[in-house]
């Protein structure tokens, strides 16, 4: 069942597997997972509900599922045409129906020799040509052949971008900082709020700073405003305007606009329109990753993602990691009314993974209309949130264990620490002990009451019911390759869910209205007299007046 926006979609909640899943849910809802782990079947359950792919290990045995659940969920995926939809994405069909574009991010990490096409033809040559240019440029910067206006080699990198032009590169550079070049620092400026700028620029030497202006459209308000402020910073520090080309490169699909900004044609790294912002870190949007980590590690990141792509494309649905992760999400979101999904990476190196996944999941699947234009009658994207463990344990895990809301959790554990000094081994053991203990507690529940307290009110307040689901993803080490596989896993999981919900995960019209309205408000803030009584609702009008008058007082 490929994407055909004009054809009416069969109602998801009328499909046979959906209806059978409802009955099945009612049959097992009162059962406790604890019981499925008792007796001789316990080990078999772990065998049955775990798998390896692309170097990742997923234990999904601590879920409220039985063999029947898995079979029915896979059946639902078939009834929704998941394999055909996946193949359509691979084939370069215009699966992004509202923008009539392919979504071929898998082409970005495919090895040379593997070809992908969209409606306009082969895209793979362009991908590899750009990678070759990125490698050559990165080498020049890294080995000191590329110098700034005053002949100094580059020591500081700034990525100016927002959303997909920021979150992915920022997350990867942070997660893999241990692989980063010691004599290079990587900085990220995203927000229109100048705090990041004000905190970053004073510590940098403009003569040895290279700015990557990253924007698919090269018109994004935040990015262009920040880029202009940084350009003025260079000039105010004595870099002549004519020499700014040594300090600015651009990544965009809009080379003309980048050149209008003053970036030389040869310093614009392009990518295809078929690369969605939140799926773009593998393209030239990842230039700062290559500059900071080097081409070898960037290639390993791509290779890890490609390994996951191959697994997703070829493994049977019942043993396909992104499919299973996606279906488990459907199970809780649609059959247990779980509103949210918590991501708990047990390493600070992945602290930027939750915000990255927020855009990936919520911008992709935060939709309420199907691809045929009719409203959905089922829940879509969960609210995704999280923090690295063990920090989260001391903040919100209380609610995960004893709150009234069911919150499925994805734990991510790394077996070998990135910093493996003997002194840190003890830390790492404690870290993993906590990670595994949390999922055990969520599963089993228990009591912190003394024998005297058990029967009374204190006992009730000290009791954990358990039966709270989680996945545990285990990675041997947080290397570029494994990180690539992990990101691709979540990308495909989001795609699986979109296929089931019958929505387009590749557009983001929901962010446009606010952007348009802000363009009208900006001049009114500068001059509140421009405000007409019926330009906005009364609340917005009074907020504009309040802020406009406060800003007026500024010199
Ligand atoms: O505002 C949403 C968005 O369009 C994202 O989808 C995108 O990643 C981001 O803005 C940045 O867009 P651009 O790369 O064109 O600057």
From TrEMBL:
GO molecular-function term, one example from the UniProt record: monosaccharide binding
Signal peptide extent: none
GO biological process, one term: gluconeogenesis
Subcellular location: Cytoplasm
Name this polypeptide is given: Glucose-6-phosphate isomerase
Gene that encodes the chain: pgi
Native source species: Pandoraea eparura
E.C. no: 5.3.1.9
Coiled-coil region(s): none
